[in-house]
Amino acid sequence: MKRPATTSLFTLCTLASVAGAADLTLYTDGDFQGRPLNVVIDLRQLGSLNFNDRASSLVIEKGAWVLCTEEDFGGSCVTLEAGKYGSLRELGLDDAITSVRRRDEVSLGVFRDPETPPPGN
Ligand SMILES: [Ca+2]
What we know:
The chain is mainly beta. The chain has a domain at 22-102: Crystallins (Gamma-B Crystallin, domain 1). The chain is 10% helix and 31% strand. It has one helix and seven strands; from the N terminus they run αβββββββ. A four-stranded antiparallel beta sheet has the order 2-1-3-6, with no helix packed on it. Strands 5-4-7 form a three-stranded antiparallel beta sheet, with no helix packed on it. The chain is globular, with a radius of gyration of 17 Å. It binds calcium ion.
């Protein structure tokens, strides 16, 4: 895909403006309405944030997130890529999300095959 050089400044500005923004935002109502919850780290219990079984729409800014119906990433889970999801009904997740985590482990400078057990075990 070709990208004109003139967009690079725009891209930089856009990146700067969203720096510190959430990677995942949950909304209590459909179409990004209601109370938002900004998520930047894995959350084992949305209930602790008064958000258990409440999310009805969401936006993923960065990465892919796994959304689960039970605590500790249990129950049935759905993985969503970056994008906007105005309704979670078709995914069977409307008012059902209880925990969320990133699909890909965030690692700083360490890359390993996911099939390889971590060293030291
Ligand atoms: Ca809801």
